[in-house]
Write a structure and sequence with these properties.
Blueprint (H helix, E strand, L loop, with lengths): L3 E2 L10 E10 L10 E4 L2 E9 L3 E3 L6 E2 L4 E2 L2 E3 L9 E5 L5 E11 L9 E9 L2 E8 L14 E4 L15 E8 L3 E17 L11 E4 L6 E6 L3 E7 L4 E7 L2 E6 L6 E9 L2 E5 L1
Parallel strand pairs: 1-21
Antiparallel strand pairs: 2-15, 3-4, 4-9, 5-8, 6-7, 8-15, 9-14, 10-13, 10-15, 11-12, 11-14, 16-17, 17-20, 18-19, 18-21, 21-22
Keywords: Signal
Protein name: T9SS type A sorting domain-containing protein
Length: about 270
């Protein structure tokens, strides 16, 4: 008999141990002008909040892959909208950010102007961390082709590289009007285990049974809205529509394994595994 297992996650906090694959996207295989890129099987959308950000491939040798010049990267070209702001976001996988490189300057590419960079990590629309960097930026082309390393293992003395997010938002401030991003190093999570001692009251509004199941299951929720079932590597497998109360579903078409169910709850989402 087919046996599909759901294991209830006991916390919404990002206090967790996870198994992941580290990957560095250098954008060299991406298309000029593309508002998205694919790395390690995950599609990331480049979301422009202020200004227009996409893949830049018109100026060979102006990027930085972490050790040498390269040809493609994300930037806002000469868009004058201010303050420039964009996100790297995926809806099909949770991830962590290790580090990335940024060229930060005036529109004329002058590196000596003063500015700031605000780095924000979000999960399901909820801010998990935010920090503003105001010093330590590269001011010459002599080193790293003008790019500054943004290291989330030590950003303003804090380590944010272990925080699970689905969106990285970057916002320029001060006199910074141009941003180029290259060598994006991130971690693809293939499993999440949360601390069982951190159960929250918000879980009382949802239950899944039977668990484990051989296919049919009931989902009780306090709120209506869409729900999704994901594999452990973040692939969307099934869409469900939830109504307040008890909902019947069937996952007998899925192979044996552990899956993640995401449903709406108040202003954020509950993740149950």
């Amino acid at each position: 008999m087919k046996r599909t297992i759901f294991l209830t996650i006991c916390s919404l906090f990002i206090s967790l141990f996870s198994f992941g694959q580290t990957s560095t996207e250098q954008f060299e295989t991406e298309s000029h002008g593309s508002p998205s890129f694919t790395d390690n099987g995950v599609i990331f959308n480049i979301i422009s909040h202020v200004g227009t950000f996409d893949i830049q491939a018109n100026y060979p040798g102006t990027g930085w892959n972490g050790t040498a010049n390269d040809n493609r990267y994300i930037d806002n070209s000469n868009d004058t909208a201010s303050p420039p702001s964009f996100s790297i976001k995926t809806t099909s996988n949770l991830f962590k950010v290790n580090r990335f490189w940024m060229y930060l300057s005036a529109l004329n590419l002058d590196l000596t102007v003063q500015g700031t960079l605000t780095v924000t990590g979000r999960l399901n629309g909820v801010t998990k961390f935010t920090q503003t960097k105001s010093t330590g930026f590269t001011t010459t082309m002599a080193s790293s082709n003008g790019y500054t390393l943004i290291d989330l293992t030590n950003l303003n003395g804090q380590n944010y590289s272990n925080i699970i997010i689905d969106e990285l938002r970057l916002t320029l401030g001060g006199n910074y009007r141009y941003a180029g991003l290259d060598a994006f190093t991130w971690v693809k999570d293939s499993g999440i285990v949360l601390a069982t001692s951190e159960a929250t009251s918000s879980q009382k509004g949802m239950s899944i049974y039977p668990n484990p199941t051989n296919g049919p299951l009931s989902i009780k929720t306090e709120e209506s809205g869409p729900a999704e079932i994901y594999s452990q590597d973040g692939k969307l497998l099934k869409n469900l529509e939830m109504k307040k109360g008890i909902n019947e579903a069937d996952i007998s078409e899925l192979p044996n394994g552990v899956y993640i169910l995401k449903t709406p709850s108040e202003s954020s989402k509950i993740i149950k595994k």
